[in-house]
Amino acid sequence: MMAAHVSDNAPPAPRVMMTREAFTEMLYERVALRLSDVAACGTGWTKNDLVKRIVRYISEAVAKSPNDEGTTWQRTVRTLVVTTLHSYGDACGHCPWFHDVDFGWLLGNVAWEMLQSREALTATWEEVSEFAHAEYQVRMEVVLLHNAIWVSVESIFKNSGKTLVKKIYKITLTAHACALEAALEDPEVASTLPKVETFMVKWIREVLERVWPVLQEFGSEHLLTEETASAFFKRLITPFEGHDFSCIPAVLLDHRGVPPLSWTFLQPTISVILAAWPMPKKRRQES
């Protein structure tokens, strides 16, 4: 049995128990409302098909989320959000509207309905709803980062074959975590440069140094030039046209925000890193 609420981010009305069928109908209505401004699905599905799929993803996540008395309500909510986003992100993460549709509050209400089966629940609706929305935002940032790196790799290396694209994607994603750790935790390095620049130096160096032997393995060394490296990292800084998401972590940004495409720090940094390598000079200069 599930309880009815009027809206996703408003306090619940007096509880009226609803059937599973009514709960599913409520999901359809609210998912459709969230997608009402989506002009083109970008998936090959109709709007109705898309609504059905997302309702199914949420319903499957409900079934997979532990909800016994021995499980903390936070773990239940987190599992619901992570499981939903895994399916939803895989199916729709490439769509231009994906970044703007927020299902966080809806998942908060779904979680609240789930938790009503517990006799010893002490959390309030506000706590559950806010926790779910915060988890959604954090997890969405991770999904966006993965999508942004994939889109950026494809845009620069799309003619290199899927295997090489996948390898460069994994290298770039792994190096991102290393660079962020260096920018946040290495005071000796961070004190000499702004955190954004510390991050970018580390990220660029890690990516290029790890990508080079992979390109050699594929006989594709010609792909790594100052021009392609510059285009690649510019795309990573602003991966989505019409959306302000950046692969530069928000925690590193100051009041100036994301660096512009004309950022004068980027090209010289790439030049210095490539110039220090024992690679043929002509590879650095080819375009």
Descriptive account of the structure:
The protein folds into two domains: 2-144, no CATH class; 161-285, no CATH class. Helix 4 (104-115) packs across helix 5, helix 5 packs across helix 6 and helix 6 (162-185) runs antiparallel to helix 8 (195-217). By secondary structure, it is mainly alpha-helical. It has eleven helices and two strands, in the order ββααααααααααα. The chain is elongated, with a radius of gyration of 23 Å. The chain has a two-stranded antiparallel sheet. The protein has helices at 20-34, 47-64, 73-92, 104-115, 125-157, 162-185, 187-190, 195-217, 226-237, 266-275, 281-285; strands spanning 2-3, 17-18.
Question: Could you name the key traits of this structure?
Answer:
11 helices; mainly alpha; 2 strands; disordered C terminus; elongated; single chain; disordered N terminus; about 290 residues
Secondary structure blueprint with pairings:
Layout: E1 2-3, E2 17-18, H1 20-34, H2 47-64, H3 73-92, H4 104-115, H5 125-157, H6 162-185, H7 187-190, H8 195-217, H9 226-237, H10 266-275, H11 281-285
Helix pairs in contact: 1-2, 2-3, 3-4, 3-5, 4-5, 5-6, 5-9, 6-8, 8-10, 9-10
Oligomeric assembly:
single chain
> Per the principal axes of the C-alpha atoms, what is the gross shape?
elongated
User: Secondary-structure element sequence?
Assistant: EEHHHHHHHHHHH
Low-confidence stretches: 1-6, 280-285
What structural class do you assign from the helix and strand content? Answer: mainly alpha
Determine the fraction of residues in helical runs and give it as a percent range.
Answer: 55-70%
Q: How many structural domains in the coordinates?
A: 2
Number of strands: 2
Strand ordering within the main sheet: 1-2
Percentage beta strand: under 5%
- Report the average pLDDT across residues: 85
Terminal CA distance reads: 63 Å
How many DSSP helices? Answer: 11
Radius of gyration: 23 Å
Largest sheet: 2 strands, antiparallel
